[in-house]
Structure formats: C-alpha cells, structure tokens
Amino acid sequence: MDLTGKVAVVTGSGQGLGLAYAQELARRGAAVVINDVRQETADAAVAGITAAGGRAVAVVAPVGTTATAIALVDAAVATFGRLDIMVTNAGILRDKVLWKMSDDDFDAVIDVHLRGTFTCVRAAVERFREQGQGGRLICIGSPAGQRGNFGQTNYSAAKAAIVGMVRTWAMELKKAGITANAVCPVAATAMTETIPFLAPYIEGMRAGEPLPAVIRREVGMGTPGDVAGVIAFLASDAASDVTGQAISIGGDRLALWSHPQLTATAFHDGGFSADDVAAQWPTTFAGRLESVGEEFPAELTGAAR
C-alpha cells in the first residue's frame, strides 16, 4: 500500500475524519493538500503531518465553488507537481425536520456536500486526464444517503446524490483509468454525536473508555482512524479494478452497499390503472415494502446505557 510519489487533496481535512484520511495517506507516502475553513486548524494539521515526516500544504477556503476546487488542484500541482487522488470529505450539518428546514438550511448543506463534491471532482478529473495516468476519486457518502435519517432531508439528499454521481463517473471515466468510489463511514465525530443513543458511547470514548463490541461490530462505529485504511486502499494500485462502489466502514465492520434492485414485479396487459394497482398491491407488493432509516440493535436503542 505504498503511495510514495502520489499527491492527494482531502477536503475538510483539518480535523475529524478528514484529518484521519490525510494522516493515513501521508503515512503511506503521499503528499497531501489539507483543506479547512479555519487557518489555525489547517496549519495544525499540516504541522502534525510534517512533524511525522510527511509532506503537506494547506488551502484555507470553503468547499463548494469552482474557484475553491481549482485552488485545491492548483495547490497540489504547484507544490508537489501533480495530482493523483481526490478525497471529497468536507461537510456541514443543518439538521431540522422538514417543516422547520429553511431554504438556507437546505442550500448550505447541498452546496458543501453535493456541489463541493461535483466541483472538486470535476477539477481533479480535468487534471487526471491532462496527466494521462489515471486517478482515484474517493467521495464520502453516508448511511443517511442509503436509508434516510430523521431530521436530515438536506444531508440525506446530498449523500444519496453523491453515490449516484459516483456510479455515473465510474462509467464515464473507466477508459481514462480513473476509479470513482463512495465511502460511507460511521465514526465517533460531532456528526454522529447528534444520534441520541450513540452520544453516551462517544462521550465515554473521549473519556478513554473503549467502545463495546456491539457498537464496533453490529453498529459498525469506531474512531476516525478505523475508517482511514479503506481510503488508503482505494487510493492505491491494489484497488485499480474497484470502481462504482458504495463501501461501508466503521469500527470492526467493512461492507458493501448494494445497488438498488427491483425486488417485486408485476405485469398487466395494457398497463396499470389505479384499480389494477390496488388489486395487485396486496398479493405482490405489500409484503415486500422496504424499511427506512438505519436499523440498530434493540438493546441499544430501547434501553439506557
């Protein structure tokens, strides 16, 4: 898993999951462009990587605009001579139930997560194609985008769309040797702390308590460092044939999300009227309805810690 000579951009990498990704890529030999909206946070991340013997530079700018995307790619090329890996991790939350979510709440999350992924990937792909040596796109999704999550209309929409874009890019970029994958992490961060039954475990972890096996395995949640390995794998030559996938990782669990499939089908000559649908529904579809939201062990969600 040697990434020596490779250059990566990791958006939103001043702290949390993004910092863990950047540190792991640097540990494996890649030079890294750190991105954050706060200068002191970005500088601290760069200092930590360089102190450990890695190479890093900071670009302080909010992700979303084409200008920021170009600045990130330009920094990689100007400082390290090339770009090989784009990790789109930057994100924010503006959680509210639908009837309380404002236009600004919706737009802010869509701008950072969805538009930011699009603009950064587009800028990276332009550079990859110019270099003619392939590249790696690693876009951060979420279980919320796969199954929905209460209070996260904006976030769930953005994360679902990111997986849709990744599938499209995997087809469009195959001939250029560019892979595109989505990683859906579950880790103890400020974002997962908003889930009520997980909050005590995250608080305990910060106090030095280990996460219990049921959290690390059945919930599949661990530390940011637990996620970083799959980022390095996808960035490496070992994953040259892995593309168009949505990969779940957290704690002690690594898994693949399936692509949506037709699960129940009926046919009716001449098409379906409303009455035809009503007649067909109980026998073919009623017992095949999909659940919504993440499913967690009952002993965790139904009992106090």
Unreliable segments of 5+ consecutive residues: none
Mean pLDDT: 94
Q: Give the second-level CATH assignment, the architecture.
A: 3-Layer(aba) Sandwich
Per CATH, the class reads Alpha Beta
- Number of DSSP-assigned strands: 8
Rg from alpha-carbon coordinates: 21 Å
The largest beta-sheet arranges its strands as 3-2-1-4-5-6-7-8
Protein name: 4-hydroxyphenyl-beta-hydroxyacyl-CoA dehydrogenase
GO molecular function, one term: oxidoreductase activity
Family: Belongs to the short-chain dehydrogenases/reductases (SDR) family.
Keywords: Oxidoreductase
Task: Write structural notes for this entry.
This protein is an alpha/beta fold and 305 residues long. The protein has one domain (7-257): Rossmann fold, CATH 3.40.50.720. The protein has helices spanning 16-27, 39-51, 66-80, 103-131, 143-147, 153-172, 199-206, 213-219, 224-235, 274-284, 298-301; strands spanning 7-10, 31-36, 55-60, 85-88, 135-140, 178-185, 246-250, 253-257. It has an 8-stranded mixed sheet with strand order 3-2-1-4-5-6-7-8, sandwiched between helices. The longest helix has 29 residues, at 103-131. The mean pLDDT is 94. Belongs to the short-chain dehydrogenases/reductases (SDR) family. This is 4-hydroxyphenyl-beta-hydroxyacyl-CoA dehydrogenase. It comes from Gordonia asplenii.
What labels describe this entry?
NAD(P)-bd_dom_sf; 305 residues; oxidoreductase; alpha/beta; Rossmann fold
